[in-house]
Automatic annotation (TrEMBL), chains A, B:
<feature type="domain" description="Cyclic nucleotide-binding">
    <location>
        <begin position="12"/>
        <end position="115"/>
    </location>
</feature>
<dbReference type="Pfam" id="PF00027">
    <property type="entry name" value="cNMP_binding"/>
</dbReference>
<dbReference type="InterPro" id="IPR018490">
    <property type="entry name" value="cNMP-bd_dom_sf"/>
</dbReference>
<dbReference type="InterPro" id="IPR000595">
    <property type="entry name" value="cNMP-bd_dom"/>
</dbReference>
<dbReference type="InterPro" id="IPR014710">
    <property type="entry name" value="RmlC-like_jellyroll"/>
</dbReference>
<protein>
    <submittedName>
        <fullName>cAMP-binding protein</fullName>
    </submittedName>
</protein>
Amino acid sequence: MVLDDVIDNLRQYVSLSQEEIKYFFESVTVCRFRKNKVLVERGQLNSPFIFIRKGCLMTFFTDEKDFKHVIQFGMDKWWTGDLNSFMNGEPSIYTIKAMADTEVLMLEKKSFEQLCQRHHAFEGYFRVLFQNSLVSHQKRIIRNISFTAEEKYLTFAKNHPKLELLIPQKYIASYLGITPEFLSMLRRKLAKRK
Amino acid sequence: MVLDDVIDNLRQYVSLSQEEIKYFFESVTVCRFRKNKVLVERGQLNSPFIFIRKGCLMTFFTDEKDFKHVIQFGMDKWWTGDLNSFMNGEPSIYTIKAMADTEVLMLEKKSFEQLCQRHHAFEGYFRVLFQNSLVSHQKRIIRNISFTAEEKYLTFAKNHPKLELLIPQKYIASYLGITPEFLSMLRRKLAKRK
DNA sequence: GTGATTTCTTAAGCTAGTTTAATAAATCAG
DNA sequence: CTGATTTATTAAACTAGCTTAAGAAATCAC
């Protein structure tokens, strides 16, 4: 019996036979990356869908003025990747970088499709995964359009205490859509208030 | 042979037998709403998943200060709804309102689950639907954190010319996360520039 | 068609958040 | 351990976007 975090995760949503578990592991590749290593370059084709076993990944977008905007942090037991590039074969618009030594499972599109086709359970799993992710993306949009910088920061710090410690502040600022200088100022103000 | 926009839409992603089409129509309820009618109230349980056949729906969130924030507009051939409420049985955090006379197909959670269980094709369809929606939500987040108000507005106007005409400006402002006064000012500035 | 209500515009004053720049602190490479 | 590089802090000047308020235009109900 193969035990693994990813299987625990899958089993939260669907039930899997031994055969299906075996097939899943045949479909993915285990990779390890050192801190600061870039996993997915902007412009890359065939970008994979990635399950983070352990570590931390950061996904960011580089605009025309060469500014970097952090789109997502990924931690243990999260899936990440450029979904559009993965699904539609287009070049990745994001860069994905390891923020700590990280171990991942990489799933290629072909394997993903076979997985979904052959075993109904996986299709169901990914449906639920996307559906949940959609709910949290919607919540983030609400925060984006209705929260002040302070509220955004406090919510982030409360929801992701581990990231708050692990990630350099300037990236957190970028994720929140504010400047690092202003975040620094906010933190000072909040610390005084206590 | 039943022909319908919703079937066209489903068939863009998966192939369906006559039996599956029949079963789909047994699973949904056709409803019509006059302009300004509220379809889903905040706090409502069992909120449905909604396919818009014709018309326009607006989804908004009401905060503690009683401000309304527009989360989404939905037009012909779009699915909409409070996904969290629909999937997890929680009270809806959104209000959904008709912005024009609108005809929809309503899908209840129970029917949704039966649909997915009995016919693999529907599970696949919703997986792709959520996946595509996720991609556009991510793009919206990029715009939120990296665009100026002017860039946000221009992108919206370019991508949704029909909505731009149909929807009162104050709701568009809300959707973009800016005040109606500022949008008005922007539009004047842009009109002069031409 | 008319009065009532909602939406849009305009403008002045304001503030949350940015920009720039310089210094301090922390981390990294060898 | 040391110099080099990256990250964080601080502060002053600035600006994009907000608030308030009042009038104009459009839409709605009857």
